[in-house]
Each structure stands twice: as C-alpha cells, then as structure tokens.
Amino acid sequence: MDTTKRPQPLARDAMAYVLAGGRGSRLKELTDRRAKPAVYFGGKTRIIDFALSNALNSGIRRLGVATQYKAHSLIRHLQRGWNFLRPERNESFDVLPASQRVSETQWYEGTADAVYQNIDIIESYGPEFMVILAGDHIYKMDYELMLRQHVDAKADVTVGCLEVPRAEATGFGVMHVDDGDTIISFIEKPADPPGMPDKPDFALASMGIYVFRTKFLLDQLRRDAADPGSSRDFGKDIIPHIVRNGKAVAHRFAKSCVRSTSESGAYWRDVGTIDAYWEANIDLTDVTPELDLYDRDWPIWTYAELKPPAKFVHDEDGRRGSAVSSLIAGDCIVSGAALKRSLVFTGARINSYSSLEEVVMLPDCVVGRNAHLKRAIIDHGVHIPEGLVVGEDPEMDAKRFRVSEKGICLITQDMIDRLSN
C-alpha cells in the first residue's frame, strides 16, 4: 500500500477570473452586436467557453467573468450555459459587468481595473490563488500544472507563455527569461524579440494568463490604482512592475497543454481576424484536426440547446441533401443541397440546388434555392436570397460584402438588405 500523501489540488483554492470585455474590432461586423468572447465557434460553442471549460476541467470551482463591450449576448449565454455551479458546494459563478461600482463615472479603464473594481467580491470568497484569464482564445490547458509551478517556484506572478518563432513574436508582449525561466524583462511588441536560452530562434510570448496569490495581487492592484500615471493594465503596468521589483516566472504552455491521443502539437489560436476565425473553424473539418473537440476527457462546456437532430432530404441527381468533410449542428435541414468542407451551426435551413464550400455559417441562417457560396462566413440569422453567388467574382464580392485580406467573404443581414435597395 502506497502511503505517500498526494498533494492537495491547488485549483480547489483558486478563483478563475476571465477578462471578457474586449470588443475584438478586427472581427469587423462579427462584433458589431456582440463582444469577441461571445462570438460563436466550432458549431456549438462560444469563444469564452474554452477558458471557462479549462478552469472547470482543471478543478477550479470559483469563476468570475468581467464584461464590458456590448455584453448582452455574452451575459445571456453565461446565464443559460454556466448556471450549474452551486454555492452549497462551495462553487460560484459571477458575471461582473462594468457597473460603476467604485465610481459613478468610471467604467473599467483596463484589464487590471476590471479586477480592482471587484476586489470586495473576490475577498468575500477568500481564494488563496487567482488565475487571470483572457476570454478570447481557443486552447485546452490544465491550470493546475501552472498553479503548481507558481508555488514550487515561490513566484510573485507566473505568466503563461507560448513558444513563438522570433520573427512572429513582434506583435506580442515578449518575456526575456534566464535559464530557469525567471523573467528578466517584459517587452511589449519588440522589433527584435529576445530568444529563449534553450531555443534561440524562438521567443516566449505572453498568453494573457497570470497566476498570483490573491493577497499579493490585491496589494498590487491597490498600489496601481493609486498611481495616477498608470493605464490600469496587466501587460503594461502590473507585470512590468513585478518583473522589476519581485519574482516573475514564465510558464510554458507546452507543459500544461491538454492533448488527446489525436492531437500532436500544442494548439492555441487567437481568432481575432476574419481570416484567422475562418481558418480555425474550417480546420475542424479535417479528418484529424489539430483541435480535438471529441475529447471526452476534456469536454468544452457550453449552453446545450434542446434541438432535434440534423436532417438531410432528397436523393435526385442535382438535388441531393449531402455533406462531405463538414460539421453540421442539430436542428439543421439540408434539403437537396450539397455541402463540402463547411461548418454549420444550429438551426440552418439550406434549400434545394444550392451549394456551400468552405463556409462557416452561424446559427439560424436560411439559404435560398440555387445559391452557391464559397469561402465565406455567414453571420447569425442571415437569409441568403435565391440564386446568390459568392466566391467566384472577387470584384463583385468586394462591392457587396466585407472581403478579408485572404479573400474570405463576411456576409451580414444588413449587407443582404442593401442588395435589394
């Protein structure tokens, strides 16, 4: 019998605090009515579900989400999909809008301020650790391993980091580390990023994930709030101050990335542009995608709607309901239409003689007969008129719709309405 005591999971004494107030303006019209963390992803989920699921699967049972920009659809999703945590089990889930609780004129001024304004709520739960998360990235990660490194290293802050080729690291906050991954300096978007000691051609880029002991963090937030010159931001103010005056340690994502047997690399995506969003969704249609959504050991929790199964009807030449290399959600009816390498969310109605190829279609869309769509993103609730052709004439597409750098068409209902005016 093994009498060795296993260490108590640190996640039990942690609170995950998700910063979900960002607009995500590079997603253009996709964020006209919703914050970036509320944008749909992967056929069933929203982007924020990944950070929250990571926390839940890691064993963290106290969750808070700070919202700000156009938060209604995000708050509605959280209320519907994340209301299963129970106070009587020492679990909690708080949605924390920018509600001018500290000052009648003050919204959240930055990422650090979004935590500072809710210090009283955090203190009421008394967590020993705080895990600060960005709410707008796609990845699977076990935060328990990062918490363990934080304690073992006796760090003041531990910063989650990606290994990025140096040439690609110029758009990130980059950690310059020593041989033990202690952060020597933090450089925001450097022209010449410092390489890693063991991998000189790679740099350590911040993921916007931070671990603190709660008391230390709250002390830092109060200090920062009293500094009139601060921009109230973790990346610009809090972390650089700790690097200069305390002990900051880098945690490499590869050490805590969760992989199923079918996932080879450490998967992390910022789906912050039209092209990146389209590519990450379409990649899921691959035979063996880089991101495994079918991993039962690390489920992505979300609002599970009660919907009937998808349905495919008609079996005539030229009018056959079919989908190849595609993901089709529930309550979709593919009626004599052909889909190829596409991802279709809940509630679609795709009518006869139409075709979709490399299309990401958000919920509740209707496609009229004889429409042919290629390399496009269709926003929520759009009605595609009969006979519309997209993806064959780039000049015509650019006049009617939003076209990305790589030629992906983003189509909204407002754009469709303008066609008939």
SSE order and pairing:
Elements: E1 14-20, E2 40-41, E3 45-46, H1 48-58, E4 62-67, H2 72-81, E5 92-97, H3 111-116, H4 119-125, E6 129-134, E7 138-139, H5 143-152, E8 157-165, E9 173-177, E10 183-188, E11 202-213, H6 214-225, H7 234-245, E12 248-252, E13 268-269, H8 274-283, E14 311-313, E15 315-316, E16 319-320, E17 322-324, E18 327-328, E19 333-335, E20 338-340, E21 343-344, E22 349-350, E23 355-361, E24 366-367, E25 372-378, E26 383-384, E27 389-390, H9 394-400, E28 402-403, E29 409-411, H10 413-419
Parallel strand pairs: 1-4, 1-6, 4-5, 8-12, 14-19, 17-20, 18-21, 19-22, 20-23, 21-23, 22-24, 23-25, 24-26, 25-27, 25-29
Antiparallel strand pairs: 2-3, 6-11, 7-13, 8-11, 9-10, 9-11, 15-16, 28-29
Helix content: 10-25%
Largest sheet: 9 strands, mixed
CATH topology heading of the largest domain: Spore Coat Polysaccharide Biosynthesis Protein SpsA, Chain A
What is the CATH class of the largest domain? Alpha Beta
- Let me know the average pLDDT: 94
Number of helices: 10
Alpha-beta content class = alpha/beta
Pfam families: Hexapep_GlmU (PF24894), NTP_transferase (PF00483)
Protein name: Glucose-1-phosphate adenylyltransferase
Binding site for alpha-D-glucose 1-phosphate: 108, 173, 188-189, 206
InterPro entries: ADP-Glc_PPase (IPR011831), ADP_Glu_pyroP_CS (IPR005836), GlgC_bac (IPR023049), GlmU/GlgC-like_hexapep (IPR056818), NTP_transferase_dom (IPR005835), Nucleotide-diphossugar_trans (IPR029044), Trimer_LpxA-like_sf (IPR011004)
